[in-house]
Every structure is written in structure tokens, then in C-alpha cells.
Write a structure and sequence with these properties.
Blueprint (H helix, E strand, L loop, with lengths): L1 H29 L2 H6 L7 H11 L7 H13 L12 H36 L4 H14 L3 H16 L21 H38 L2 H8 L4 H13 L4 H14 L1 H7 L4 H10 L3 H29 L7
Helix pairs in contact: 1-4, 1-14, 5-6, 5-8, 5-11, 6-8, 7-8, 7-12, 8-10, 8-12, 9-10, 11-13, 11-14, 12-13, 13-14
Length: 326
């Protein structure tokens, strides 16, 4: 098992290096950081622009291979370079990862658990009211863009507030609670988190319930489940101990990859509710022609894939002993 995981880790590391390198070259060849400075008022001289871009390692006049070698050397030493505004990418990256973690961690755990539970119950109660209702609701949610769900929740919250500020629709916290972690600040953060977290949970429940329902239906008619019942196991015990464990196996990779990659995939949710996380960073970096930030997001996403792959392998091995190979 140990050698198997080491081989998987080596494969994922190669993929991380290749993906991060390709992202840098793509950003370096297609983005034009010079345009960001040429539009300033008062205008800057060409010499001043070139000097600034050289300082940021973003000068398009420098061969992209040279810029990449410089960037990769700094990354190896823990320096992700400078943003197009001259700030540290490390500082901006660390702040936004924290924002995304606070928003996504609880929402993805709740969404995935509810999705598996709803899908399982839907399969057990096939063609009954609960199954028909959740199926219709899931298809309705999946057919709707995420930002529409977010805007609908914001409108609903505004109506429910009726002049009060119980449900917060923008930002991570009110300005007077900046840097505070006392009880009032935690309540304020929870008020801000409710709507974006609910948006993510609704989408994930709809998605995961469809997959889980399909896999559970395949298991319900299986021989091993009938055998478990014939041996005297109660219906519920057989379903949980043998049926659910088998049915969740095909869903595990989807769960893990979606949960981990949501750190850079919650762009619309973060934009809708004014959360300055990793998803927003990706969009803003591209519009600002910020090569170093785009490359950092690419590197971060590649590392997330590595983590998701390893977690998926570990969970698979834990749930199915047949994959515990050398």
C-alpha cells in the first residue's frame, strides 16, 4: 500500500509540474501586462513601464522562457512574485485562500453529506413522493446557473429582512468587526456566510444526489445485498453496512475532486456575494493581465488536483480492500 501511494504521489507531482508550467507559458504568451500601464493618466514613459515590468518579471519583451525560469526559481524558494500592482503575490494568495477556506469548508462538507443522504433515500423510496420531488428539484437546480441561484437568494433575503440587517448579502463581515474574533464578530460572520454557503450547498446536494441515487439503485437489486438479508441482517443494517458502502464507491472521486477544486471554482458565488477568495482572484487576475497571479492560481489548482487524487485513492482503499495493491 505504501509503495502504491508513493507511485501515485510521484505521478501526481509530475502532473503538477507540467500543469503549472503550461499555465505560466499560456499566461505569459497571451496576457499583456504592458496594456495595464499604458492606459494610466498621467501617462508613463516607455522606459518607466519597461523598468516596472522588469521589476515584476512581466515584461513581454523578455523571452517567456527566461521569465519562466526566473518565476520557477523564485517559486522553489517560496516566492510567488509580485502582482501587477506591485504587491506580494504570497500575501494576496494567503489572504484569499483563508477567505475561500472559511466559505467552502463547512458548505462543501454539508452539501456532499446531504447529497449522498438525499440520493440514498431517493433510491430506497424510488418513484414515491420524496424521490419524485427531489428528482424534480435537482434537475431544476442543475438547469439553473449558479449566479441566478445566488441572486434569487439575495432578493429573498432582502424581502425577509424587511428593513433589518439580519441576513447579510455582501462581504465577509461588517467593517467594524475587521480583525475581531469575539462572539459578536462570529455572529456577524455567520450572518454573512449563510447565503453564499446556502448557494453552494443547494448546488452540491442537487449534483451529488443524482449520482448517489443511480449507484444506489444498482446496488439495491444485487445478490450480495439479498445474501446479507438472508443471513438475518435487518433491512436497514444491510443497506447501511453493505449497500451504502458499495454504492458510494463510484461517487468518491467525484466528491473529493469537486470538494477540493471548488476552491478555485466558486467564482460566481464569490462574485455574487462579494467574497474575495480564490475564484474571484482568478477572474480579476486575467482581466488585470496579471501573469504572476494567474500562474499562481494555476499552480494552486494543480496542487489541489494532487491532494484530491491522493485523498480519493486513500478513501477508495479504505472502502474497498480490493484496491489495496502493492
Amino acid at each position: 500500500m505504501g509503495r502504491y501511494m508513493l507511485r501515485r504521489l510521484a505521478n501526481y507531482l509530475v502532473l503538477v509540474i507540467v500543469a503549472a508550467s503550461l499555465t505560466y507559458f499560456l499566461a505569459g504568451l497571451t496576457l499583456n501586462p504592458r496594456a495595464k500601464f499604458e492606459g494610466r493618466n498621467p501617462p508613463l514613459s516607455e522606459t518607466a513601464i519597461s523598468r516596472t515590468l522588469d521589476d515584476y518579471n512581466m515584461n513581454p519583451d523578455t523571452p517567456v522562457v527566461t521569465r519562466f525560469v526566473h518565476w520557477a526559481g523564485d517559486v522553489v524558494h517560496g516566492d510567488l512574485g509580485k502582482t501587477i500592482e506591485g504587491d506580494s503575490v504570497n500575501d494576496d494568495f494567503g489572504r484569499r485562500v483563508g477567505v475561500s477556506t472559511r466559505l467552502l469548508l463547512l458548505a462543501t462538507l454539508i452539501g456532499s453529506a446531504l447529497g449522498v443522504a438525499v440520493g440514498t433515500l431517493g433510491a430506497i423510496r424510488q418513484y414515491r413522493f420524496f424521490d419524485r420531488f427531489t428528482t424534480l428539484a435537482s434537475f431544476f437546480v442543475l438547469a439553473m446557473p449558479v449566479f441566478v441561484i445566488g441572486v434569487a437568494l439575495k432578493i429573498g433575503a432582502t424581502i425577509l429582512n424587511d428593513g433589518s440587517q439580519t441576513l447579510k448579502v455582501l462581504g465577509e463581515y461588517d467593517a467594524q468587526f475587521a480583525g475581531q474574533w469575539n462572539w459578536d464578530a462570529l455572529v456577524n460572520r455567520a450572518q454573512h456566510m449563510l447565503l453564499p454557503a446556502l448557494t453552494l450547498i443547494i448546488v452540491q446536494v442537487a449534483l451529488y444526489s443524482r449520482y448517489q441515487r443511480s449507484t444506489m439503485l444498482d446496488v439495491l437489486g444485487s445478490d450480495f445485498l439479498r445474501t446479507a438479508r438472508a443471513k438475518g441482517l435487518r433491512h436497514r443494517t444491510a443497506l447501511v453496512k453493505h449497500g451504502l458502502r458499495t454504492a458510494i464507491l463510484p461517487v468518491v472521486p467525484l466528491l473529493v475532486y469537486n470538494i477540493v477544486l471548488l476552491f478555485t471554482g466558486a467564482t460566481f458565488t464569490e462574485k455574487t456575494f462579494g467574497w474575495h477568495g480564490m475564484g474571484e482572484l482568478l477572474v480579476d487576475s486575467i482581466t488585470k493581465q496579471d501573469v504572476n497571479s494567474v500562474a499562481t492560481v494555476g499552480l494552486f489548482t494543480a496542487v489541489l488536483v494532487l491532494i484530491a487524487g491522493l485523498l480519493s485513492d486513500l478513501l477508495y482503499a479504505a472502502l474497498d480492500p480490493r484496491v489495496r495493491v502493492r
